[in-house]
Amino acid sequence: MIAIQESTLLRAEKISMEFVSRYGFLGRHQHRVRALDSVDLEIQRGETLGIVGESGCGKTTLGRCLIRLITPTAGRIVLDGVEILALDASALRHLRREMQMVFQNPFSSLNPRMKVDDLVAEPLRTHTDLAGGALEERVEELLVEVGLGAEHMKRHPHQLSGGQAQRVALSRALALSPKFLVLDEPTSALDVSVQAQIINLLSQLQERHGLTYLFISHDLSVVRHISDRIAVMYLGQIVELASSDAIFNSPQHPYTQALISSTPVPDPDSGRERIILEGNVPSPANPPAGCRFHTRCPYVMDICRRQEPKAHAVGEGHWAACHLLDKAPSDSVIDLQLIN
Amino acid sequence: MTSTAEYAVLAPRRVSASVWAARLLRGFRRRNILLGFSVFILLLITGTGILAPWISPYDPTRGKLENQKLPPAWIGERTATKTVVEFGQSPDQISISKAKRLKSDVVLGDRIEVVIRGSGRTEFLLGTDHLGRDMLSRIIHGARISLIIASVTLGVGGLIGTTVGLAAGYFGGWVDEVIMRVTDVFLAFPPLLLAIAIASALGPNFFNAILAIALTWWPWYTRLVRAQSLSLRERAFIEAAHGIGVNDLTIIRRHILPNVLTPVLVQATLDIGTAILTAAGLSFIGLGTQPPTADWGVMINIGRLFVLGGRWWIATFSGLAIFLTALAFNLLGDGVRDAADPRTRGADL
């Protein structure tokens, strides 16, 4: 086993996820979609790692794989010293208390037929022996923790506002005091004013409980606000990873640059140049050869069509995978293990 | 058997009993006459079925032979002229042996005057059968048998079907494949034919008839429940439950079952009429309830022997009872389906 630094909570190595759908007589034909292609990632204790990228780039799949809601087809994931891909079903269920997920739309992730108190009690009933008054007390405590109260306990999800429902989902995730939370676009189904409240609540909870977040979003300004580090994904791969500030101030990968230039700036005189990407995201079922971004890259070179770019360190904890950074191919290509 | 109708996977919001009642009521208003009629008939049938031993005027299985084949109360005594033939086949014919009992010197081809008894009294409201048993009592007790058969077959069929369907839809893979191929085998036969085959293989009696119908019924519920759980399985709250670490059985019980129950109940209501009809069919051909039990199918089977002789009432009233019951249950089923379907529900809820 590779020595993992004490400060690292989760380490993922070469995670690949391939979805295979069979069709035709007796499933003779198959359709393969590579949603994740050899993704490496390390998450430090107490940090928030943001994942950004277009729809369909695999960011949600990555989040689901990291807590093994779906099992990746290849790779290793170590959470707090436990190799989670090696666990059997019951050990995995047991480990669920350590890692939780909050979904995009609370109205679909909460069973419409259950009441709030039952929804929040579900994780406690599953993993603890709490019952009766003690259970009720803990449920109320959890609701207060996320800014709700006893008056919400007997309501059904449809009787809550979007923000309230997302708070219920959050209190479910917090119920077992997990170490690691995957937040899958937790604010994108909400009104802008409510988004800010939820984001602030998330920050408070992180501080209070020392939580580690993986924050998935396509909203760059939200990600910038909450994340310590940001990973940019394109077609199932991480193309750039750096601290929040570095991503926004000195993006290295052309895709990151295009993404950042697309965020609106509330200053008509900023004079910032917009990079408009041509074309559509290629299908992950048939990704382009070489650099996956070459079909849309404004700086495309010959080598991009032939060879997949390696990750280059471009600063303290900042790397990007682009041939533009191949200054002297022999010495600048670095081992990912060293950066993290 | 009704085909699997489309249902909304889930009522988008929780529906309380009072809201349900309100929807049904609105349905009644919309199709006032039909649904009112069906509910009236159903209350009547269920009421008489439950109270049969107390309200039926006579013992349904014992009669006096002197009272045999009396017509309904409103038909009085009358005379008719009949032709004497070898074997009497129609109402205006009389067999020579019977004619000789009335008048010793008749010959074939004579026309003689015959007195036809009416019940003449309100004693036997719907008349009596060939063994002098009161038809009204038999029909009242027949309601009881029909309701028992319908509820037990649908209960057993629905229970098996739902359990198996949940397993198929939730676990998928080879479990689904095996279960679905087994249901295919059952669905490949026309339902009544399969019930006949099973009932005759097991031997004709009341219990085996129930078993035969239940066995032909479950695959329909399996298909329905499987389709529902298949789409429920993909819903985010199921994934959320997995994420929390809830085990499969608890997920099925807590999250899937409550959401498939509504369409199953709707389907069951629609199927009651068909189940009663099938049971009567089995009894009619002698594979279900056996005489002397007062079963509507048995009564038609016996009564048909006397229709040509002019004793139409023995088969007619039991046939009418089956017809009304099946019709009323189908109408109620339509009402329940409309109440459960958000597309026909109207926008005010």
Tell me what you see in this structure.
By secondary structure, chain A is an alpha/beta fold. Helices cover 33% and strands 24% of the residues of chain A. Chain B has 11 helices and 3 strands; from the N terminus they run H-H-E-E-H-E-H-H-H-H-H-H-H-H. A 3-stranded mixed beta sheet of chain B has the order 2-1-3. In chain B, helix 4 packs antiparallel against helix 5, helix 7 (206-233) packs antiparallel against helix 9 (248-284) and helix 9 packs parallel to helix 10 (296-307). Chain B is elongated. The chains are: A alpha/beta (340), B mainly alpha (349).
Offer a quick outline of the entry.
The complex is a heterodimer of chains A (340) and B (349). Chain A has 13 helices and twelve strands.
Q: What order do the SSEs of chain B take from the amino end to the carboxyl end, as H and E?
A: HHEEHEHHHHHHHH
CATH structural architecture of the largest domain in chain B = Orthogonal Bundle
Radius of gyration of chain B (CA) equals 26 Å
Shape assignment of chain A: globular
Shape of chain B: elongated
Q: Percent range for helical residues of chain B? A: 55-70%
Give the rounded overall mean pLDDT of chain B.
82
**Which series of helices and strands of chain A comes N to C?**
EEEHEEHEHHHHEHEHEEHHHEEHH
The tally of strands of chain B reads: 3
Q: What structural class should be given to the helix and strand makeup of chain B?
A: mainly alpha
Characteristics:
heterodimer; A: 340 residues; alpha/beta; eight-stranded mixed sheet; four-stranded antiparallel sheet; 13 helices; 33% helix; globular; B: 349 residues; mainly alpha; MetI-like fold; 2 domains; three-stranded mixed sheet; 11 helices; disordered N terminus; disordered C terminus
Layout of strands and helices, then pairs:
The complex is a heterodimer of chains A (about 350) and B (about 350).
Chain A: E1 8-23, E2 29-44, E3 48-52, H1 59-66, E4 74-79, E5 82-83, H2 89-95, E6 99-102, H3 106-109, H4 116-127, H5 132-145, H6 162-174, E7 180-184, H7 192-209, E8 212-216, H8 220-226, E9 229-234, E10 237-243, H9 244-249, H10 254-262, H11 302-306, E11 311-315, E12 318-321, H12 329-332, H13 336-339
Parallel strand pairs in A: 3-8, 3-9, 6-7, 7-8
Antiparallel strand pairs in A: 1-2, 1-4, 4-5, 9-10, 10-12, 11-12
Helix pairs in contact in A: 4-5, 4-6, 6-7
Chain B: H1 17-30, H2 32-55, E1 78-85, E2 93-95, H3 96-102, E3 111-116, H4 135-171, H5 173-187, H6 191-202, H7 206-233, H8 236-244, H9 248-284, H10 296-307, H11 313-340
Parallel strand pairs in B: 1-2
Antiparallel strand pairs in B: 1-3
